[in-house]
Write a structure and sequence with these properties.
178 residues, 6 helices
């Protein structure tokens, strides 16, 4: 391999390490902070996911360049890796959609004024407690927002696990065959 080939390969590896790794950590952390109802951190993780998803395109670009330089496009493991990357990118888009929905749901639950303290250990007021206080509509809105956030939390957790598994399969294909 020439110096250029090595340089492109190192850029490909560096892009994978510095974009896919932190992006995966962000999507894996999101369900925890949705459960804790921490809108600020969930919003921050959403921005991180968005930035690293776009930056991960560098991994694809450098990978395509090195594949062309080494004439590896005819190798089946390259086609599988590219296909899995595209699938992972689509899953990242779905995760970002669900993160946005969770942020909106948490904001609706918080804005409904259900009278609960938003600490990590506090439990939300139940509908009967809110009805006794004469606050039925905000309590129902808060409960609906929390239910939506819980659904999004589960969806994000499952898709994030699948995305992490895809990244692992791509890594094994690259190391085993590269």
């Amino acid at each position: 391999m020439s110096f250029t080939d090595h340089a492109i390969l190192w850029l490909h590896v560096a892009a994978a390490m510095f974009t896919i790794g932190p992006g995966t950590a962000a999507i894996m952390s999101t369900p925890r902070y949705i459960r804790k109802r921490n809108i600020v951190v969930v919003g921050y993780l959403y921005r991180i996911t968005r930035i690293y998803a776009v930056a991960s395109l560098l991994t694809l670009i450098f990978g395509l360049v090195i594949t062309e330089l080494l004439h590896y496009f005819s190798k089946p493991w390259v086609s599988v890796s590219i296909t899995l990357y595209v699938v992972a990118l689509v899953l990242l888009i779905l995760i970002m959609r669900d993160q946005r929905k969770a942020i909106t749901a948490l904001a609706a639950a918080e804005g409904a004024g259900d009278g609960t303290v938003r600490s990590e250990s506090a439990e939300p007021a139940t509908a009967p407690q809110a009805a006794a206080a004469g606050d039925v509509q905000p309590a129902a809105t808060a409960a609906a927002g929390l239910k939506t956030a819980a659904v999004e939390r589960g969806r994000i957790a499952s898709i994030a696990g699948l995305t992490g598994l895809i990244w692992l399969v791509i890594l094994v294909l690259m190391v085993w065959n590269g």
